[in-house]
């Protein structure tokens, strides 16, 4: 079974020798939401631009809907919608003409009903005859989304689409994403709002230094790499950890009255029972116990940090 987007050993070396992509291989299925996470300069935008045909790869192949983005560019590009980071719109053009023009660029026949539907869904219909320069930053971002959807793409790229926008637009954006997914549209999202990726993505990809560190189903990733923390509130405060507790992965909070114990959920033994026994043996009384699951942000930071350390060592 072939994917909607197939990336095979893609490399990109810019003039001057900078290697932005280092052999990226990835298959994205129809109707899937993939969140691509990575620090600034990791290669996210270069990868998206390569898939969209805006950047020519130095090596490897990319296919969208079975169409090679180089040898069958027109067919591949027609299937793709892109919401870029930068707001680059004609300031004196009307909103409705801007969106109509984007649809026409892809060879689609004029469809005023469809354009109206898109503009209404994005709360732009009342602004349809306004010049772009009259809009707020959030409204301009909505126009970018409308442009990307105007030709009914089957693959939608969202490159930091909610960066710096209001809460209302962010909520509307994710509602639209869910509607598109239900219609079978494949969505690739890059974001710095990791909680959004954690909430809506099917799979998580982590890219750093031009390399894809992993791509895994979100729930499986959380289970495999996630750790839990046991927050133990004590009846009394401590100035330092007793020596008898040194073997446990414990942190003493600043108030001295709380301990944080980190443990692996996949381990055969968590060590919690042994820890409680050790606390009792030390004469420490427990007031309350709470658990916290390690977040996707924690996992992401650990992955990128560990990769950076390996590169420094090399």
TrEMBL record:
<dbReference type="InterPro" id="IPR003439">
    <property type="entry name" value="ABC_transporter-like_ATP-bd"/>
</dbReference>
<protein>
    <submittedName>
        <fullName>ABC-2 type transport system ATP-binding protein</fullName>
    </submittedName>
</protein>
<dbReference type="GO" id="GO:0016887">
    <property type="term" value="F:ATP hydrolysis activity"/>
</dbReference>
<keyword id="KW-0067">ATP-binding</keyword>
<keyword id="KW-0547">Nucleotide-binding</keyword>
<dbReference type="InterPro" id="IPR017871">
    <property type="entry name" value="ABC_transporter-like_CS"/>
</dbReference>
<feature type="domain" description="ABC transporter">
    <location>
        <begin position="5"/>
        <end position="234"/>
    </location>
</feature>
<dbReference type="InterPro" id="IPR003593">
    <property type="entry name" value="AAA+_ATPase"/>
</dbReference>
<dbReference type="Pfam" id="PF00005">
    <property type="entry name" value="ABC_tran"/>
</dbReference>
<keyword id="KW-0813">Transport</keyword>
<dbReference type="GO" id="GO:0005524">
    <property type="term" value="F:ATP binding"/>
</dbReference>
<dbReference type="InterPro" id="IPR050763">
    <property type="entry name" value="ABC_transporter_ATP-binding"/>
</dbReference>
<dbReference type="InterPro" id="IPR027417">
    <property type="entry name" value="P-loop_NTPase"/>
</dbReference>
């Amino acid at each position: 079974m072939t994917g909607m987007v197939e990336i095979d050993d893609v490399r990109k070396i810019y003039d001057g020798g900078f290697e932005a992509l280092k052999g990226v291989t990835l298959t994205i299925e129809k109707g899937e939401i993939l969140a691509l996470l990575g620090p600034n300069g990791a290669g996210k935008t270069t990868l998206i631009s390569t898939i969209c045909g805006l950047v020519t790869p130095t090596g490897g192949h990319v296919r969208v809907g079975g169409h090679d983005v180089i040898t069958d560019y027109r067919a591949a590009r027609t299937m793709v919608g892109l919401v870029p980071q930068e707001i680059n719109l004609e300031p004196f053009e009307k909103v409705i003409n801007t969106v109509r023009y984007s649809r026409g660029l892809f060879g689609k026949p004029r469809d005023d009903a469809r354009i109206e539907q898109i503009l209404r869904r994005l709360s732009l219909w009342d602004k349809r005859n306004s010049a772009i320069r009259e809009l707020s930053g959030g409204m301009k971002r909505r126009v970018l989304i409308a442009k990307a959807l105007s030709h009914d793409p089957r693959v939608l790229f969202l490159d930091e689409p909610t960066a710096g926008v209001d809460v209302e637009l962010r909520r509307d954006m994710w509602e639209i994403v869910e509607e598109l997914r239900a219609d079978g549209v494949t969505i690739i999202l890059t974001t710095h709002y990791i909680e959004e990726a954690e909430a809506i993505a099917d799979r998580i990809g982590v890219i750093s230094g031009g390399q894809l560190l992993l791509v895994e189903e979100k729930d499986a990733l959380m289970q495999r790499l996630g750790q839990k923390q046991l927050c133990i509130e004590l009846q009394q405060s401590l100035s330092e950890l007793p020596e008898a507790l040194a073997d446990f992965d414990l942190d003493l909070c600043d108030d001295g009255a709380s301990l944080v114990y980190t443990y692996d959920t996949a381990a055969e033994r968590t060590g919690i029972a042994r820890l409680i026994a050790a606390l009792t043996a030390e004469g420490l009384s427990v007031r309350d116990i709470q658990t916290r699951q390690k977040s996707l942000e924690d996992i992401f930071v650990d992955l990128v940090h560990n990769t950076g350390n390996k590169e420094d060592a090399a």
